[in-house]
Structures are given as structure tokens and as C-alpha cells.
Task: structure prediction
Amino acid sequence: MRLSLVFLLLWVAAASVSTLLATSSADELIKQVQDRYNGARTLSVQFEEDYSIQGHPRPSESGTMILKKQGKMRWDYTRPPGKLFLSDGKNVYLYTASDNRVEKVPLKDTEDMRAPLVFLLGHLDMKKDFRDFQVTSAEHGNWLDASASSDRVPYDKVAMLILPNGAIGELKVYGRDQSVMSFFFREEKVNPPVQDQLFHFAIPPGAEVVDAMDSGSQEQ
Result:
């Protein structure tokens, strides 16, 4: 009985130490990420985007993402060509050249899972936005998994591959609708010169415009 008790105490102690080490690692990764992005004014990165819903994948997309404080974001797609996702800090625009169609939604109301990335260049506070952090080592860095702290956001969980310099190399966003959006980032540049004009959206000639704000006001 005494031997069993000793083993039990040793196991509990080992588990407690493991938990403390994991927490410390999570804290270190969070600090790395926040130090990198909270000090940035602009950011540019090449991305590849994969999306699946209920296990059914869609074709991969890719292009360039540019961020600027406050709340400005531009995703220029080269695959498919002519697709644009843009935030001017107040509204979000999604333009698809193939059908010459524009969707316009207030930034605060959008459920698009690309939108939360705009807050990388705000005051990033990961412990406010996420909970239940877990760390797993990887070949090129560490995976930091977390759950959303609020059920008001369209995603339930996120997983980030944190590189040694604090950059996010990969990001997986798990939606509440059983969708998964994965991003692979490369060639990240912090504080490149970026003009405000990049975040001004001009409606293309003849484009169909779907305005969520107008639709909402008509329904009231």
C-alpha cells in the first residue's frame, strides 16, 4: 500500500510539473507573438488558403495579404485571379471578378473567418480572446492551440504554428459550422511602406453590389 501511494504521489507530482511547463511554454509563445505584432504598424505576407466544410474541401487559393493599423486589410488573390477581400477599417468588401459581384458588410458584423486577422495589428491580447491554451512541439516551431473565449465569434478553436521569431507560419481556424480554414504564410515583412489608397474600394463598372447594411435597414 505504501509503495502504491508513493507511485501515486510521484505520478501526481510529475503531472503537475508537466502542466506548469506547458503553461510556461504557452505564456512564452503568447509573449513572442504579441511582441512581434503589437509593435507593427503594417504587415505583408504571401498566403495559401485551404477551406473545407463538413469534410468537403474546396480548391486551394493563394495571393498576398497586407495589413495596416487601424483595422485595414487587403487580400489580393492570384488564384483565383481577380478575387479581392478588403477591409477599410469600417466595412468589408468581397469582390469576385468571375461574376463581377461585390459583397459589402460592416467589419463588426462580418462572420468571415479572415476578418479576425485584422486585429493582429491592433492591441493583440490573446488571453482575452482565447482560453485553454495547449502547446505541441513541431519541426519548425511550436503549435499553439486555443479555444475562443466567446461564443459570439464564428469560430470555435484556432491552432497557430509559431515560428522561432514569433511569426505565425500557419493558422487553422475551426468554425462552429464544422468548417476549417487553413492559412500557410511565407515571406512575412513587418512594417513595409503601405499607402492608405490600397484600402479604398472602388466599385467596378457594372458590378452587382450586395449591401448588408441596406438589406438590414430595409428589414427593420
